[in-house]
Amino acid sequence: MKKLTLSLVLLVFLLSACGGTATPVPTLEPVKENRSIVVAEGTLLPDPSVELSFAQPGILAEILVSEGEQVTEGQILARLENSEALQAEVARAEEAYLTAQQAFNTSEAAVLRELSDSHEAVRTAELAFDNFDVPADLREMTTREAMEFTYGKLEEARTNFEPYKYLEERLEWEMREDDPENPKVYRDTAKIYKKRLDDAWADYRKAIQWAELEANVEAAKAKMQNAQEEFDNLTAGENAEQMAVARAQFESALASLNAARAALDNSQLRAPFAATVLSLDLSVGETVNAGAPVAFLGDLGRWQVETKDLAEIDVANVTVGDKVTIKLDAFLDEEFTGTVTGIDPVGREYLGDMTYKTTITLDESDPRFRWNMTATVTIDTEAE
Predict the structure, then answer these.
(1) Distance of alpha carbon 175 from alpha carbon 178, whole angstroms
(2) Residues 186, 164 contacting (CB under 8 angstroms)
(3) I need a labelling partner for 79 at 20 to 30 A (CA). Which of 21, 32, 215, 252 fits?
């Protein structure tokens, strides 16, 4: 009975507790992620740098440089066995090309150049004519009308000035002989008519210059017409077949020369820019495969980091010019600084995320740096 009573008391207590006012649960504000700092991983590279490979397979005949050597732009680094034969083929192709070019230049090519030059002469003459500053009172006239009009004004000014031609000298003499206490009154008529005569001469010369520019245009057009007629004559009738043969031989020789040069280039490994040879994976006598990297070149004076996992949600906050702190796995206790200098506009999928390669240029180089060192970059997107 006592146990039942105790149970009833506990039940009443619990029911009264449930019916009471519940203790409020505090509402947690969502944590806003700080996007002013962006962290990504990347790879350290010389700037610029390149991996070189042969464009065709073959047996390596010669290595002309060694690791650590400084090379210049276009310098040959290595050759395949058939390189000398290909050089001879290029020489033969160049000779055939020059022969075909000379034959072609004596026919259609020479006329084509003359026709092209005449078109350019017309363009230059028309440009000078169109840009000539024509006086406002002559713009509604032709050049001939302008010359006639300005010449008439010049004759009129000459006639008006003639009576005053020597008056200025006489006035100067009379003024020297004047009585200071009773001076005469003089008019400056001679200078007025002289000014009108000078202006008329200037307008007439302007009209002549305008007419000369128009004549230059007509002469250039006539020369162009003659060049066109000469070209039409050479490419028609009896000369048509001869011109076609000369053109075909020239084009064939040019194609052969380009093919020979391409084959020679494919048998040689050249430096695309001045750099240091960082690695050479080559041995004389070995067979190399087309497209397989065999040499690594870079400019050790400047280094950069290329990120590989900068996600789209982070790259939206990054801009060129942002300051960057770089840590290399090889030197965990050291930090290096740099600046964002490029952001790839095209995203690429990496480990399931869309990422954007970002380039960071380091402020200083270090002789301990090595190609492909792993780097962690921290980009301060709010730094000024």
Answers:
(1) 5
(2) no
(3) 252
